[in-house]
Amino acid sequence: DEVNRATPKTQSALLEVMQEHSVTVGGHTYKMEQPYFVLATQNPLEMEGTYPLPEAQLDRFLFKLQVEFPSRDELHAILDRTTGAESPEVKPVLDRETILKMRKVVRDVAVARHVQDYAIRVLEATHPGRPGSPDSVARFVRFGASPRGVQATLLAAKIRALFDGRFSASIDDVRWAAKPALRHRMILNFEGEAEGVRTDQVLDDILKSVPETAK
């Protein structure tokens, strides 16, 4: 929780376990048991006591989800669960073996060459001066997304296909996954920061400009 309140030294230790799935203490390295993954929340950088997350660490997160302010119905549900007489009870919905099996099923989902090529071209377009890159990228983006971005996009596209009962990912799946998979991997330049541009706005331009079929 509130990962960007941790000090840079703590962030460095977290980066090791996110990338290597191991922790080094006193010269000894301990492997994490699988499945191991990190879920984190963060506060706006404008809040006191927050630190910007290192780009290398952001790149290790598969998705960045934008959590909007709760609706009135959601606030009712929050209040019912947290201010009533009954204590909330956490119940497991999946066991370890099931999660590992689900991971394998996701990897087995097919991705046609043209779908994979589209995902690559979307990634390329996040970089200034690359093919398919719209004007907003050249104007507002300092660094585009890394290759991990297209890996995350394709894995998420496969998951969406499975949720929809399909065993092959489509271009629509890639388009659905692009924002949460790429928004935190793009670094804005000074002009983008000064004008309050969001990477989602730039990604909207990219998804409009990159054709489904390579020219």
- Considering the protein shown, what is the CATH homologous superfamily of the domain at 95-215? Magnesium chelatase subunit I, C-Terminal domain
Indicate the radius of gyration in whole angstroms. Answer: 20 Å
What is the CA–CA distance across the termini?
45 Å
Q: So, CATH architecture of the domain at 95-215?
A: Orthogonal Bundle
Number of helices: 10
How much helicity do the residues have? 40-55%
The helix-strand sequence is: HEEHHHEHHEHEHEHH
Largest sheet composition: 2 strands, antiparallel
Shape: globular
List the uncertain runs.
none
From the helix content, strand content and strand pairing, which structural class follows? mainly alpha
CATH topology of the domain at 95-215: Helicase, Ruva Protein, domain 3
CATH C-level category of the domain at 95-215:
Mainly Alpha
Question: How much of the sequence is in beta strands?
Answer: 5-15%
Describe the structure in your own words.
This protein has a domain at 95-215: Helicase, Ruva Protein, domain 3 (Orthogonal Bundle), CATH 1.10.8.80. The model has no long low-confidence stretch (mean pLDDT 91). The chain has a two-stranded antiparallel ribbon with strand order 1-2. It has a two-stranded parallel ribbon with strand order 3-5. The protein has helices at residues 8-20, 55-58, 72-83, 96-108, 113-124, 135-140, 147-163, 171-182, 190-194, 199-209; strands spanning 22-25, 28-31, 110-111, 141-143, 168-169, 187-188. Strand 1 (22-25) and strand 2 form a beta hairpin. The radius of gyration is 20 Å and the shape is globular. It is mainly alpha-helical. The N and C termini lie far apart (45 Å). The longest helix has 17 residues, at 147-163. It has ten helices and six strands, in the order H-E-E-H-H-H-E-H-H-E-H-E-H-E-H-H.
